[in-house]
Specification:
The protein has 292 residues and is an alpha/beta fold. 28% of the residues lie in helices and 31% in strands.
């Protein structure tokens, strides 16, 4: 029998790090090391308890080696403000700029300065599948191109207007449009989506990817849709017990307040958990804007 056959399955990276840590610091402390982490290309993001702080340097070095990454960041709090700035500290390495590739789309960004929600992977792909070649898209909270890039590269949109008020995100959006060879179809716009002038009556899709609730921007989005109608994609957070039903009703009321006419029925879907008892939901709704 070969040596590899007697060793059994290879342990997951965190388990290997935990076993090594237990040998140095004891099983009680090692048990406090969480299993979870988020890998963002060459960077890994962890949520380790402060009780392990004096061991952070050795733990981070071990995890970087186990995962084959350059940098380890620790989340120190929730994403801050409308600019969605991550709160992190550097535990290992120096380079925080990284690149994530999903379904052939490339996103380059600085993980210490720009949020990238790994749990939205399926939703980013879906954004590309919702859009049809030749359509016009507006993304009011574009970030580094979470939905704008799939809409252009995968969906074949002829024009994507991508608005964000964070200059760091817009700079990366411009770079990412070049990386994905869609600069001719993606128009980054730096500014506040509530006030910046945008063309009305032209969009087939408007993405509203702001959490915890994009409802306040529905009234801004409705007039952007084509006179014959278009589709809104509204993101919000709700109580997990009736998340889909609740958010479908909230979006319908917001469209009605904006004098839009709903075609069909709003359709909500769960994107991911969002803290204890809360769920991130996106609601798709076909809307005809009010007659000018």
């Amino acid at each position: 029998m070969s040596p590899s056959a007697t060793r059994g399955p290879r342990r997951p990276p965190v388990e290997r790090v935990r076993l090594a840590f237990a040998g140095r610091a004891g099983a009680e402390l090692a048990a406090q090391l969480p299993d979870g982490y988020v890998r963002l290309g060459r960077v890994v993001l962890v949520r380790w308890p402060d009780t392990l702080r004096r061991h952070f340097p050795s733990l981070a070095a071990d995890l970087a080696s186990a995962l084959g990454v350059q940098t380890v960041l620790r989340a120190t709090g929730p994403v801050e403000g409308e600019l969605r700035t991550p709160r992190v500290e550097l535990l290992f390495g120096h380079e925080t700029e990284t690149e994530v590739v999903e379904h052939g789309v490339r996103w380059r960004f600085d993980a210490a300065r720009v949020m990238f929600a790994a749990g939205n992977r399926t939703e980013r792909l879906r954004a590309g599948r919702l859009v049809r070649p030749g359509q016009t898209v507006v993304d009011l909270f574009a970030g580094i191109g979470y939905f704008a890039l799939p809409a252009a590269r995968l969906g074949g949109a002829s024009r994507v207007v991508a608005v964000d008020r964070n200059p760091v995100s817009i700079a990366y959006l411009e770079e990412n449009a070049r990386l994905n060879r869609v600069s001719d179809r993606v128009a980054p716009v730096l500014g506040d989506s509530r006030f910046i002038p945008l063309r009305t009556g032209a969009a087939d899709h408007v993405f509203l990817g702001y959490l915890p609730s994009a409802l306040p921007w529905v009234g801004r989005a409705v007039p952007l849709l084509r006179p014959a109608g278009g589709e809104l994609h509204v993101h919000l957070v709700a109580d997990s017990r009736r998340a889909v039903e609740t958010t479908e009703g909230e979006v319908a009321h917001a469209v009605e307040r904006a004098a839009g006419a709903i075609r069909g029925t709003p359709h909500g879907r769960e994107v991911k958990p969002y803290g204890p008892g809360r769920t991130h939901v996106v609601v798709d709704v076909l809307v005809r804007p009010p007659v000018a």
